[in-house]
Amino acid sequence: MPIQEREFSAVTPDGEIVGWLRESGGGHANALLLHGGPGLSEHMSSLAEELDGFVNTARYQQRGLAPSALTGDASIEGHVADAVAVMDSLGWQKPVVIGHSWGGHLALHLAAAHPERIGALVILDALGATGDGGQAEFGPALRAGLSATDLARLEELEAIEEPTEDEQREHLGLLWPQYFGDPASAPAMPPLRFATNGGDTWASIQAHFEARTLEQALPGVTVPTLIIHGSRSPIPLEQAQQMAALIPNATLVVHEGKGHWAWLEESGFVRGQMEAFPPSS
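-> structure tokens emitted (281 positions)
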């Protein structure tokens, strides 16, 4: 029987967090998927489908965009609380937590704050845990392959104080191919939407970097951790290496020749690595 997806919701003080559950049946581990951004619409449905029959998956829209709450605490602490609320609503005590990009960074903070709620971690090309997380290199790496025309248009868009959603989509669309190991073969950008609270999350991220929160906390995170990072990612590989060195039970897999979107660039790769590194239930 085909796996069906159903909507669920978790209650928070500021409204509901809405997500989608895919169940593979009894005996499978549970996996919570945390999407990137911050301030983007949920975009991990294809990874959830890739994991069908291996784990049950739940993914949700982070606050700031419908159908989840549009307002509320968009700090790291607020996002961590939302993730815990989602796990509680599903009755999941210690799921595997799979996070991509900003979602991987959030997964690390979730594990640091609530290690008792994590069965295992899978970190996909995440913002790092030390220094500035790789932000200084990230922007220039994305721009390096752009034409003079695209760079000029990018600067025009970045000069707009309150860009429309279409302008934000155009901005990301110019950069989109550069996220991939081979920009010429990048897939079409999904129909992403943009929230207004991403800046609040970034401010919280910066504050935690200054406080060295993860650098100090990750040595105490002892759950099995799989880190997958593209060798051609705009986030420096050194960040993944430093992250792996901080976490006692971490395994780093370098996705050779690939960039930021492991499951889009090589179908089945993430699942294959997880099957070789079994998550706990």
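The chain has one domain: 5-143+190-276.
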